Amino acid sequence: MGIDYWNRTKQYITAVTEWTNAMTEPLPEHIAGLLMQAASDQMTADGIAAWFENSIKAYKPFHKHQINQPFLR
Asked: What's residue 11's pLDDT?
C-alpha cells in the first residue's frame, strides 16, 4: 500500500522538493535570464507565474535546461 502511494506521487514530490531547494540557492544563469526576459515579455512572465501553481512546471526549466533552449511554456 505505501509503495503504491510512493509510485503514484514520486514524480511530484521529487519535483517539488528539488525546485524548493533550488529556490534557496543563487539562481542559475538561465533562470535569471528568463526573469529578465519576463520583464518585457508577458508570455514568459505568465509561464514563470505558472511555476508557483504547479512545481512540476518549474522543475524542467531549473533542472533540465539545455544551453540556448527557449523558454518552456
From this structure: 86
